[in-house]
Amino acid sequence: MSKTGDAEARAGKGVLVVDVQGDFTEHESGSLAVPGSDAHYLEAVKEAVQSLLRERLPVYATQDWHPADHVSFYTNHPGAKPFEILDLNGRKQIMWPPHCVQQTPGAEILIPDAWIKKIVRKGMDPEYDSYSGFADDGGRETELDEVLRKEHIRELIVFGLATDYCVKFTVMDALKLGYAVEVRLDLCRGVSPDTTEAAIREMKEQGAVIREGV
């Protein structure tokens, strides 16, 4: 293929790495480490990102960026226990261990900044959780959609942590917004087998292309 053809093939396509941060990985002994997120996983992610960069695809990343008083932290609710579900103002909220607190090492993205064209932060409103990279549970949008549209991105390769939470909700919102989405399942890890299986099924049913590997 000619250089012009290569450029045309790449036009409109981008990579979205979801929440590959210290607190979500076993490698960094994260407070909310996803099973299987060890050194081998991180190396595979880095190798994949480098390969996609060589294809001249722009790489974007989401970053959980919570204030210390975030509603999802069980430590902010006297008597609450990790992973229990509370009814807060008429909505169900999972109680998570404190994670990805702003300006802490656990919030750092584990991919070199130089590889990432734009980092989009989420979960900054203390009153709402934010699994999706596009909007929080209260409906407040992040800048992700605006960034992608400005750069004429209409197709996304998505992977990261965790399959059954932030990856799933990000993919579902992307599909609703009209993006074509390919999920690299080999570069995702899930919190639990049951919810991961359900998430994969939901993403596929909504139109995402699920790839097991390269």
Describe this structure in words.
The protein is built from five helices and eight strands; from the N terminus they run αβαββββαβαβαβ. The chain is α/β, with parallel strands linked by helices and 214 residues long. The chain has one domain (3-67, 99-211): Rossmann fold, CATH 3.40.50. The strands form two sheets. A six-stranded parallel beta sheet has the order 5-2-1-6-7-8, sandwiched between helices. Strands 3-4 form a two-stranded antiparallel ribbon. α4 (163-176) packs parallel to α5. Residues 1-6 have low confidence and may be disordered.
Task: Please name the defining characteristics of this protein.
6-stranded parallel β-sheet; 214 residues; Rossmann fold; two-stranded antiparallel sheet; globular; alpha/beta
Give the number of helices. Answer: 5
Strand order of the largest sheet: 5-2-1-6-7-8
CATH class: Alpha Beta
| Average predicted confidence as pLDDT | 94
Task: List the domain count as a whole number.
Answer: 1
Low-confidence stretches: 1-6
Helix content: 25-40%
- How much of the sequence lies in strands comes to 15-25%
Shape: globular
**H-E order:** HEHEEEEHEHEHE
Terminal Cα span: 20 Å
Would you count the extended β strands for me?
8
Can you identify the CATH superfamily? Isochorismatase-like
Q: How big is the Rg?
A: 17 Å
CATH architecture: 3-Layer(aba) Sandwich
Structural class: alpha/beta
Largest sheet: number of strands, sense, barrel closure: 6 strands, parallel
CATH topology: Rossmann fold
